[in-house]
Inverse folding.
């Protein structure tokens, strides 16, 4: 796969199983990447400190220092935003959410194929490239917020942009609460209407992935299809919004609003 985004990339693989190490390294070589292997989280941290890597593939179930702890250390102690992809069997419900909360950028389920690994890597590395090329894309741990439209419509008026952001942060929890209430009541007509209303704000302040999730909720509620999937999707929306809120407040602190 000569057109892989991994061509000439250096990848650190944190994996304790010898067979899995061989399989992953061979797969990465076929995708054009070079791979270093770490047998546990501590070894991965030491290798990362001493070399530059474009990506880390992180097994989440390693002994002593698991993938979650290792990722948190890399994010908090080493202050690195290197893309990290979890490798997990997802035997436990909610494990994907735990990956994101620890600071990982994506995941690939075991056992993976060369195509599924390449797809996961493409998604994560392309997002990192877009982030680097867009000055109005605010990023944090597993969240990206595109505020380009605010600058387009305001003519770079910072006071206006700050007011818009804080209005958004004030109103969005109320809007999400309305979706939550209509979900609890299984009032699918109201779920549809509330989700449709939510999309308007999200089209101006674009939290990557949330717009698509809300659109999915809207369409499923309207057609009354895949209704059992809606609560899980909505939980992802709430989690992602909390992350986006932190990123927006770092850029536009509450005390930055002009008086009056």
């Amino acid at each position: 796969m000569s057109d892989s985004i991994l061509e000439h990339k250096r990848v650190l693989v944190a994996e304790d199983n010898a067979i899995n190490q061989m399989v992953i390294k061979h797969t990465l070589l076929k995708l054009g990447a070079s791979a270093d292997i770490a047998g546990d989280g501590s070894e991965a941290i030491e290798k990362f400190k001493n070399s530059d890597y474009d990506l880390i593939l992180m097994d989440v179930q390693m002994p002593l220092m698991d993938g979650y702890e290792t990722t948190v250390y890399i994010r908090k102690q080493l202050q690195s935003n290197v893309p990290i992809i979890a490798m997990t069997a997802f035997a436990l419900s909610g494990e994907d959410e735990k990956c994101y909360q620890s600071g990982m950028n994506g995941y690939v389920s075991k056992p993976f194929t060369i195509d599924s690994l390449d797809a996961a890597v493409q998604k994560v590395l392309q997002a990192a490239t877009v982030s680097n090329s867009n000055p109005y894309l605010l990023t944090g741990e597993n969240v990206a917020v595109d505020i380009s439209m605010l600058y387009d419509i305001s003519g770079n008026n910072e006071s206006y942009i700050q007011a818009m952001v804080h209005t958004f942060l004030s109103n969005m929890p109320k809007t999400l609460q309305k979706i939550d209430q209509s979900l609890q009541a299984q009032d699918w007509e109201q779920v549809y209407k509330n989700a449709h209303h939510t999309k308007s704000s999200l089209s101006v302040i674009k939290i990557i992935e949330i717009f698509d999730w809300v659109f999915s909720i809207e369409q499923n509620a309207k057609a009354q299809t895949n209704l059992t999937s809606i609560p899980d999707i909505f939980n992802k929306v709430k989690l992602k919004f909390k992350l986006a809120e932190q990123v927006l407040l770092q850029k536009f602190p509450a005390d930055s609003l002009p008086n009056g």
